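Title: Comparing notes on inverse folding

I've been comparing how different people in this forum approach sequence design from structure. To keep things fair, I'm posting one structure and asking everyone to reply with a full sequence. Here's the target:
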């Protein structure tokens, strides 16, 4: 599965690194790519690996980078 979402709190590359580091720890997440200029994050995950959009979204909210859907 893949989803790209707007994350208004992204302000710098450090924000993207934090999102990548934290979301990558969700079991089943394959990749996390951020775009500072577009304030977007693209996440690829494997549901067979245990990841769900709900778990990923919860992690983003937990680290104060709530997605706008």
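Reply #1:
Here's my take.
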């Amino acid at each position: 599965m893949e989803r790209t979402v707007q994350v208004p709190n992204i302000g710098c590359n450090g924000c993207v690194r934090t999102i990548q580091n934290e979301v990558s720890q969700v079991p089943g997440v394959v990749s996390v790519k951020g775009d500072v200029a577009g304030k977007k994050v693209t996440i690829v995950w494997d549901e067979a690996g245990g990841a769900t959009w709900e778990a990923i979204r919860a992690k983003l909210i937990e680290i104060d980078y709530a997605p706008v859907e």
